[in-house]
Design a protein that fits this description.
Order of helices and strands: HHHHH
Strand content: under 5%
Number of helices: 5
Shape: elongated
Radius of gyration: 23 Å
Structural class: mainly alpha
Helix content: 55-70%
Largest sheet: none
Distance between the termini: 54 Å
Number of strands: 0
């Protein structure tokens, strides 16, 4: 059974060629594809989809920076001590 993303990719897809892949990297990817029971092409496509689904680290850091609460180190220490004292 084809995954929906694979089916969509087959309907309208773009070809990507990767040159200068070291032999050991190629062999490892082939080994992993074989272990997963898929072709090398399908395995690499799955990995590319997985990478593309994650936000870039710059976005993650930017979001996390926008959610920070401005506390001084002394306030953090005081909060931890207060929490410990309540236990």
């Amino acid at each position: 059974m084809l995954r929906s993303s694979t089916f969509s990719a087959q309907l309208r897809s773009t070809r990507i060629s990767v040159r200068h892949v070291p032999d050991d990297v190629h062999a490892e990817l082939r080994r992993r594809a074989h272990a997963a029971g898929v072709s090398l092409s399908e395995y690499v496509l799955q990995e590319l989809e997985r990478v593309a689904a994650r936000p870039p680290m710059a976005e993650v850091f930017a979001r996390s920076a926008s959610r920070r609460i401005a506390l001084s180190p002394d306030e953090v220490v005081a909060g931890i001590r207060a929490d410990r004292d309540e236990r």
